[in-house]
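Re: the multi-chain job from yesterday

Posting the exact lines I submitted so nobody has to dig through the queue logs.
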Amino acid sequence: MPETPVLTVLHGDRLPPGMQGIEAAAVVRYTREDGLAEALRGADALFVYDFLSKAVPGAWHAADRLRWVHIASAGVDPVLFPGLRDSDVVLTNSRGVFDRPIAEYVLGVLLAFAKDFARSAELQSRKRWLHRETERLTGKRALVVGTGPIGRAIAGLLRAVGLEVTGVGRRARADDPDFGTVHAADRLVDHLPDADFVIAVAPLTEHTKGMFDSRAFDAMRPTARFVNVGRGELVVTSDLVDALRDGVIAGAALDVFETEPLPQDSPLWTMENVLVSPHMSGDFVGWRDALVEVFADNFRRWRADRDLRNVVDKQLGYVPSTR
Amino acid sequence: MPETPVLTVLHGDRLPPGMQGIEAAAVVRYTREDGLAEALRGADALFVYDFLSKAVPGAWHAADRLRWVHIASAGVDPVLFPGLRDSDVVLTNSRGVFDRPIAEYVLGVLLAFAKDFARSAELQSRKRWLHRETERLTGKRALVVGTGPIGRAIAGLLRAVGLEVTGVGRRARADDPDFGTVHAADRLVDHLPDADFVIAVAPLTEHTKGMFDSRAFDAMRPTARFVNVGRGELVVTSDLVDALRDGVIAGAALDVFETEPLPQDSPLWTMENVLVSPHMSGDFVGWRDALVEVFADNFRRWRADRDLRNVVDKQLGYVPSTR
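And the result, structure tokens for all chains:
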């Protein structure tokens, strides 16, 4: 451990707040994507605050003494490239910050579908009073694909309001504390027909990329709604568009997309059974401070040579659950 | 009890479904508002299926042998006029049918406010990708004004997702099983400043009419949202409009209105911090069948001379809680 370590901070338009304590204990190099390689040379640690940046692989050649990378997100796919994966560099993430906010967002879109809020807003804009009957959420079935902390928070909240929830994870199990039953991801298609709501919150890995394709949508109920709060690349977007257009499924709430921002020519913008939000489901007021707090806690541990929190299994592509 | 009683059914555009069993056990006279007086003459019971109709008082003079009135709603204000109140005619309501659906609606609008869904929809309609930070619902405070079964279902659901909930009822109490603390309605204004969400679900009586006036809105936080799933007449609408327009409160979700349908010239239609829905918060798919089932159960009890369910205390204006 050097006397004063060099910490590189990759940021976008905003600098991370509340870094004073860290600045007192490290030489901090703030950089945007274009200066990353230069800023990595001689650096001991990298804080990827711009957590959607794809610039790390291209600058990796300059990382000549890096020992630790921390990313300000739950998903680590932007930094899981062979150079980092096969190195001794430790990778940590921001597990925990987004769990409950994303679960609230998911519950909100389920209620928005059940209570037909989008149509109410549209009718209100035309001053039309049109009574409709709406759905009850209690007793409906949700399949949560992804059994990490965010998936667990979603399961807990949906169960608290009366939905029946099952999970889909890497391995099948019958006695999961949050899900009860977890089905194996390689049997996903067998379990999709049971669900009123299918919620994608899996980490993006080579095993999960494109797992929601036409075969998956064909297996869903025509009344089912699909929710994606994981990664856009979990979905074959053209297959989703076809499924929504052809009534194969009833609707979708999408917070993440294969290309972000969602391109202007995407048909998803204008489909009336689709709710688009701009990758913000977990971003509550104060989230930036919370992210820096998670990093600062790990920074103090790193300096004190204590075990880091949220160490990613770089082969799996996520932090293994301790449960 | 006559051999075959005469039952008058007041309906609107739709007839109640599933009446075959009742038709086999009574002479059933179906009528709309304009035929009500004639249909009441000689009738033993009245089923007010058109539960928002205000025609009963004007036809009451013809009710020469009526012993029972059942209304297909939770609120009984349309039939609580002096002639019925001061008579020996028993009044029952449809307590229970709407509890959980209305609670889901309330949770839905709270999440819609917290997660800024209306703005997301508006931005989507313009294909604009604009990230925002949103609110967490966990830890927020809700004040539920009305401690009947619907208010209790709301309290249970909001508490299940992490809100702090207190109630406002006729009498203060400290150990309510659903609310914990219930404040007395005559101290409402003292407790409004504590709430992030104020939810009106009280029965409409002479004591509650207009209880949400400028004095009440002035006492709320500027960040507070007001939700009305009770009756429009609980609110002084012009005071609410002023409070919303002047930023005295942050928003409102309104399912009921002083005049329904909401008049075309109401400013509520176009206020961007207002969610308007057409008196449908409890009306789930199957609600009409459920309402007739509640009536049919009471009809069988009435014919068998057993105690009726949901007997309204005509002085209080609602079914007293048994808890």
